Structures are given as structure tokens and as C-alpha cells.
Amino acid sequence: MTPDKMMDNDTISNEDDPLCALYETYTTVRFIFITLATVIACLGTGANLILIHIFAMKKSATTPATLYPSILAFLDFSICLEYLLLFGVDAVVSFVQVKSLFYLYYAYIIPAYVASRITQLAIPYMLIFATLERLVWTSENM
């Protein structure tokens, strides 16, 4: 479409408008990086689930408390899952170009983004609390 046709309000064209597309285009390098990071996020999701299970099963008086490390493992699980939802699914949506997947992605992207920001905010506080918990536990055992 030429700029003259764009400015003409009477012209109705069936041509695709390149300025507004359903799918974001990815360069090959960007798609490879996102795919590799998605694989790492999948591994992190699984590893954090295993860690949560280990912390839940470990209830011994000789080991330190596991409340804050369990919460930290859950937050790490959450951030990995949110990465998958925000970036991994977006790469798949742009690659396969399925319209229903596109609509599903844009239905949950805002709540997933808000959840990821809350998770990012909570992680440093859990690190501080976990450190204080370990300090209290070690000072009681001296």
C-alpha cells in the first residue's frame, strides 16, 4: 500500500497492513535464545518442584528450619513458570501462528505479568528472611 492510498479515506483495500500484525516477528537468533531460555526455565520449574518436595519431607530437629527456603523455592518455581507463560508461549504463538492460541495468550498476559512483578518483588525479601532465619538457628545452637 502506498502512502497516497493510506491517506485516502475513500480507498478500501484488502491488502494486509504491515503496521499492525497479529504476531510479532522474531529474528532467528532471538528465537533460538528464547527457546534455550525456555528449556532452562522448564528445568528450573521441575528442579524447584523437587526442592519444594524435599523441604516438605524434611522435618528433623537437627536440621535448620525450612519455611523460608521452601517459600523461596516456590517463588523460584513461580518465576520460571511465569517466564514460560510470558516468553516461551509468545515464541510458540509467533512460530505456529494459531489464532486461538494468540487470543489465549493475550487473555492471560496481564495477570501473568502482574504475578511476575509480585514474585520479583517478593524474592529479595524471602532471601533476607531466610538469612535471618539461618542466623537465629545458628546462634541458638552455639
TrEMBL record:
Bilayer-spanning residue ranges: 31-55, 67-86, 106-132
Gene3D superfamilies the record matches: Rhodopsin 7-helix transmembrane proteins
This protein's record includes keyword Membrane: yes
Name under which the protein is recorded: G-protein coupled receptors family 1 profile domain-containing protein
Source species: Ancylostoma duodenale
Record's keyword terms, sorted: Membrane, Transmembrane, Transmembrane helix
Matching SUPFAM superfamilies: Family A G protein-coupled receptor-like (SSF81321)
